[in-house]
Amino acid sequence: MVHQDGDSPPHLWIAGEAPKLTVLLVVGKASKEARQLEATALAGLVNFPGSNLEIHTVDGAARRLAELGKQSSGVRGPLRAFPGVNCPDLVPDKVTEETHGVFAKSFTQHIDVFGVGVYGTKSVPEDKLIHAAAVLAQWLDDDADGLPDAPEVVQALAVRHAFMGMTRTERELERHHPFEAPQGAGYHFGQFLSADETAPRGHFDASLEECLHLVQKGWELAWPATFGPWKGTALSECLDRARGGFFLDIPDETPEGAWYHYDDRTCEYDCMAVEYCYFALTTLLGGQVGRAEEVHQEWQCTTPDGVRAKDPWIVKLLTSPDHRLPRALPDGRYLPALAIGKKQR
Questions:
Q1: For 165, left (φ over 0), alpha (ψ -120 to 50), or beta?
Q2: pLDDT digits (tens, 9 = 90+) for 176-195
Q3: How far apart are CA 208 and CA 315, in angstroms?
Q4: pTM for this predicted structure
Q5: How far is it, in rounded angstroms, from Cα 223 to Cα 233?
Q6: What kind and span of H or E run contains 128?
Q7: 3-class DSSP state of 273
């Protein structure tokens, strides 16, 4: 179960269910990082009475984990951060004017995801808010080690107070304008999501798209020459190829050979780039399989093999190791949060 040598970074494994947990710190050799991770875990365990931290060598951890793995709850990990301290624990907290300022005028519940707020109005079911936060966490931490895959992206979003805002329905958004107060106070990096489109039974989960759009803003800010949604970037070169040419206005007829032809006339060039990137990445990760009939007016490639064959240029861009983009489609089951269980409030 443990596959580390002496040069591998320290990791945490968690067994049991909150609040009584057994946490193993696996250390190949003494290091500053190991001491920091031990301090982090100890700080996090303050919230879980009856829990304990064990420190093991790699060989000792393998034996101990095999022993703990026989228990009904099993073991979860490895993690390089500790849930509830420096990675999302996905437990909603109450929004107050003292803690969240102007957001309290519209929203009542909140989950922090690496410094990006996920806010819900009073009418939003808690499980929908948690699911959206988990999807956002997975887009940012694809390998689920409790740390963002691209810290520069998270930093770019967090310093600008980026947030997801959820209402129960789109009608609630239109009637009560919950974004008005935050945007009036200068919080312009907000993305809307309705609860009734989040993880609906038998239908596409809109949180995959809307959470990704917010993350895409982070890509744009962190790597503007690559993911900027304007002419002259690496993304725009792929976009123009997929659309059959460069044009600002939507053509009356789709250019021959084009495989992306989004036809919403309110969606300008930058919007076209964002939507194209969303379609390409989610298709590559298997998120558009079975949706050909639903999206054919916009996007012609709905399988991973299809997008690899039709658009190898965007595939190369999205899989470049330089940017550490997600390699798996989020499912709302974010490992670090699941490893800890539901924290007592």
A1: beta
A2: 999 999 999 999 999 999 99
A3: 19
A4: 0.92
A5: 10
A6: helix 126-140
A7: helix
